[in-house]
Write a structure and sequence with these properties.
Blueprint: E1 13-18, E2 24-29, E3 33-40, E4 45-52, H1 53-62, H2 65-71, H3 79-98
Antiparallel strand pairs: 1-2, 3-4
Length: 99
């Protein structure tokens, strides 16, 4: 399983370990991924996703999973998140048309 956030697309980064003698060796920086259950208000269900802590804070800041999915471009989202976004848009479309 790849270490990529399903909502933000944040993945591993590559850098160096630097010794006291300034020797550089390759290393990786992995994102802090958590398995979380987020609730979709539009769908009325809960969804399990693998999200970075930064992504989780961003979702809460925007106002929930549904708002995050609608505002985020598809190229950052995982396949599961894109399918979820499509379902949320279908549910929200009749509500916006009536208003």
């Amino acid at each position: 399983m790849s270490r990529i956030c399903e909502l933000t697309g944040k993945g591993r980064q590559v850098g160096h370990n630097v010794s006291h003698a300034n020797n550089k060796t390759k290393r990786t920086f992995l994102p802090n991924l958590q398995n979380v259950t987020l609730i979709s208000d539009a769908l009325g269900t809960s969804v399990r996703l693998r999200v970075s802590t930064h992504g989780l804070r961003s979702v809460e800041h925007v106002g929930g999973l549904d708002n995050w999915l609608v505002k985020t471009s598809d190229d950052q989202l995982s396949l599961r998140a894109r399918r979820l976004k499509r379902e949320v848009k279908k549910k929200l479309a009749p509500v916006e048309a009536a208003a």
